[in-house]
Amino acid sequence: MRSVLTNEILKTFSKWRSSIAFIAIAVVVPLVHIAFYLQGEAAAKSLARGLTQDFFLLGNLLNGYFVTYVVLNTLWIHVPFLITLGAGDQLAGEATGGTFRLLLIRPVSRTRILLAKYLTTLLYTCAVVLFLGILSLVLGIALFGTGDVLVPGRTIVIIPEAEAPWRIGGALLLALWGMWTVASLAFLLSSLVENAIGPIVGTMAIIIVFYAIGNIPADLFRDIKPYLFTTYLSVWQQALEQSIDWHAVASSVLILGAFSVGFLAATWYIFVRKDILS
């Protein structure tokens, strides 16, 4: 299993398509930081304007933690797209390249090959999310220093600087857990088609449609919303609430985990019975 997994990891990370996610992050994240460096102070003051009527706000509101929070908000659409570039290519890429038969003549079961590819998918997802978070945090602290975290929303939350490191770290880990579910969906779709573009387009279409359904203010769609995995992808935001709802966090983590396991089980069922023609 170890040699199969090592081969899959090396194969995945050596592909040009897998590098696109890291290149995009390496370009976009510094641009976001430069934009905040040039005019971000005005944005932070604008967000805190409602508080200044009742409180004296001291310290550095525009800091590395705040900018990292802004960057994490790309988890809705942009990061899932980058993740599908690698996850959607795992099985469909073999079909496109005509290498499935060569892969399956090894004295290794289909289940072991599938698990190696799935673990590689999770590792790739982990690398993309952590690269995004760590790069943003390092650049942010280097440019803006540290301070309390201003979290805008329906109410403005201010997290003390002393709590900021573990709060941001927790948000990253919860975000990673959600992105593993997205990667699992792309992995499932990758087993259904023979073109690597299909899982990418299919995954993004499902995410966009589910987000749209979840945000339509109608009773029918409100009843459907708890059954959509996209409903729980925002669990990372719980780590940045004034008071963390641990019950909601545990519930979301378990539901996302169940979706991931379900997607993997469906992929296994399809893959072990798949008639490989090329």
Question: Short summary of the structure?
Answer:
With 278 residues, the protein is an all-alpha fold. The chain has helices spanning 2-13, 16-47, 49-52, 64-72, 78-87, 92-97, 100-104, 110-144, 164-190, 197-215, 219-224, 246-272; strands at residues 149-151, 157-159. The two termini are 24 Å apart.
Distance between the termini: 24 Å
Quantity of strands, as a count: 2
What letter string, H or E per element, gives the SSE order?
HHHHHHHHEEHHHH
Global Rg: 21 Å
Count of individual helical segments: 12
Overall, the morphology is globular
Q: Beta-sheet strand percentage? A: under 5%
Mind summarizing the main beta sheet? 2 strands, antiparallel
Low-pLDDT regions:
none
Tell me roughly what share of residues is in helical segments: 55-70%
Mean pLDDT equals 84
